[in-house]
Design goal:
The chain is α/β, with parallel strands linked by helices. The chain has helices at about 1-25, 30-45, 50-75, 100-115, 135-145, 165-180, 190-205, 220-235; strands at about 85-90, 95, 100, 120-125, 155-160, 185-190, 210.
Length: about 240
């Protein structure tokens, strides 16, 4: 039974890797799923011949990312905002040919929900220029939120950053002119990204609450695996 389940899981992982390859790009997340799936298929083929410690090692190596991704989902879905913050950080997630993708749209929709509860907050949208973009991500995000009802005068644009750490670092420089005596803040990003964004914000002296946005179902496999790997990179190099 376990042998058959291992084979099935391996095939599923290979199919997920092909989805990433065909509809997104060739990269480390594709390789992670492809190698994980291929290993399980080979493992199932020799399941009855390997030593006990190999079973344990493979079980642990697969349990760690699964447990971590479950933690990211649970942590990110537990909101801590009280809707009284002065500043709302809305973090970017990339554009495609200047178009807002579902992952980013979920964050922007969450920002509009926050605005309904706290219409006096200042929103700072974060994201620079990506490859093939004629406008910054921050500009596209601001246009979306203005169309949704947030007054333009309550929006600030941070349009130089290329990663989450820079989102906060550059935004703090902008906010220093508007809030010289300090401010309370909340972070809006997808559930999978809440933990790491809070960790990086704390490295810059911030203590934001969070109001996580859902992760589109068809992007779960890609986003959670990428975040799992990004988290270890953050712990090692950005602590």
């Amino acid at each position: 039974m376990i042998k058959k389940l291992t084979l099935i899981l391996g095939v599923i992982l290979l199919l997920l890797s092909l989805d990433i390859l065909f509809f997104h790009n060739f990269g480390i997340v594709f390789l992670a799923y492809f190698l994980a799936g291929a290993l399980l298929i080979v493992y199932s083929r020799f399941f009855d011949k390997v030593a006990k410690f190999v079973h344990v090692a493979i079980g642990v190596s697969y349990a760690i990312p699964i447990a971590m991704m479950a933690f990211l989902a649970i942590y990110g879905s537990s909101h801590t905002t009280d809707f009284t913050e002065d500043v709302v950080f809305v973090l970017g997630a990339g554009l495609r040919n200047d178009d807002i993708l579902p992952t980013l749209e979920a964050r922007l929709d969450q920002a509009l929900l926050y605005f309904e509860r706290n219409p006096n907050a200042v929103f700072i949208v974060c994201g620079g220029y990506g490859e093939g973009q004629s406008i910054s991500e921050a500009r596209a995000m601001a246009d979306f939120l203005i169309a949704g009802g947030i007054p333009e005068e309550q929006l600030l644009l941070e349009d130089l950053s290329t990663n989450t750490y820079e989102n906060f670092a550059f935004a703090v420089e902008i906010l220093a002119d508007y809030f010289p005596d300090g401010f309370e803040s909340v972070v809006i990003t997808n559930h999978f990204h809440i933990y790491r964004s809070g960790f990086l914000a704390q490295n810059l002296g911030l203590e934001p609450t969070h109001f996580g946005a859902p992760t589109p179902f068809n992007t779960w496999h890609r986003n959670y695996m990428r975040e799992f790997m990004a988290l270890f990179n953050t712990w090692l190099f950005q602590s």
